[in-house]
């Protein structure tokens, strides 16, 4: 099937989208839109061919009548862009976070349903091999029931741009990936959260750039998150450093390639049991991987009549709800229910 897309938001992230789109047979990007015409032109040039450029997404959609909107714009523009594209019959693949508020997210889901269009989110950090391998190990039951997941995220990036003025920037712009990964790994959703946010002295962000959160998950497990974007030195992976505890063993993942698991063996002393290491399942040909490209492939396959993508808005809203509940908890100082 041949599919035509318009891409809005030709900033830093758009290069990854363009690269992914080039690898999908039958998919073309017919128009590039950015408020800054030079960015739209540069993106079109990197795509090649004779794509159009402009500053108005609606005008471009009306002119080109594409099958798809690729939304890579800043989060503040998201609801308007996605709503307009859905109302014009486009399928939409959108960057995270899927909206700025729960009301906006719910509105976009309702619009996609009413229009009968696929609406999915680039939650690309669940499309990586370690996540899939760990998920398979946990699902095998070898560690027993998962009782807690813990992760640390500590980096000190100087992005410039919209992030440095954004409220709740760590939770909204980054922790969404980690919270989504916790759902993906555990197979559990979140029911409630207690969260504290702060902006450390010396921060180059205008607002809260560090956070600690404790989530209660649906099957009784606890998920704890500690994160900061103002942490110089000893940086973690962008995927976080993880420890997952089950009834019969534990798993640690450094967020890169080092995954280790141990399960309980015979007693060693009155104090401790022995532990024996467990092999981590290798990659499987069916694993959903390849980051942006993997998400985009599943989105296109869904348009062509395949399964609904894993990151469809209806599912992704459960990860977004974790972020929004964490923000409400941080603002109120209270434990807050995670409502979808
Ligand atoms: N999935 C990931 O791993 C990942 C990584 C980085 C960024 N992102 C997300 O991608 C999105 C963009 O981030 P970025 O780093 O490329 O930001 P950026 O600031 O570099 O680029 C955003 C672009 O959107 C344009 N824009 C703003 N309003 C617009 C509108 N109404 N119509 C068209 N263009 C508009 C801006 O002019 C800018 O060029 C954000 O939602 C961000 O969270 C995701």
Topology:
Elements: E1 3-8, H1 14-22, E2 27-33, H2 37-47, E3 52-54, H3 57-64, E4 68-71, H4 75-87, E5 91-94, H5 102-115, E6 119-121, H6 129-140, E7 146-154, H7 169-186, E8 190-198, E9 210-217, E10 222-228, E11 241-246, E12 249-253, E13 259-267, E14 273-278, H8 291-303, H9 313-332, E15 336-337
Parallel strand pairs: 1-2, 1-4, 2-3, 4-5, 5-6, 7-10
Antiparallel strand pairs: 7-11, 8-9, 8-15, 9-10, 11-12, 12-13, 13-14
This protein binds nicotinamide-adenine-dinucleotide.
Q: Main beta sheet, described?
A: 9 strands, mixed
Helix percentage: 25-40%
- The chain-level mean pLDDT equals 97
Query: Would you identify the CATH architecture of the largest domain?
Result: 2-Layer Sandwich
Q: How much strand?
A: 25-35%
- The low-confidence parts are none
Number of helical segments? 9
Number of domains: 2
Return the CATH class of the largest domain: Alpha Beta
User: Cα distance, first to last residue?
Assistant: 35 Å
Got a strand count? 15
Order of strands across the widest beta sheet? 14-13-12-11-7-10-9-8-15
- Using the coordinates shown, work out and report the CATH topology of the largest domain: Dihydrodipicolinate Reductase, domain 2
Rg computed from alpha carbons, rounded to a whole number of angstroms: 21 Å
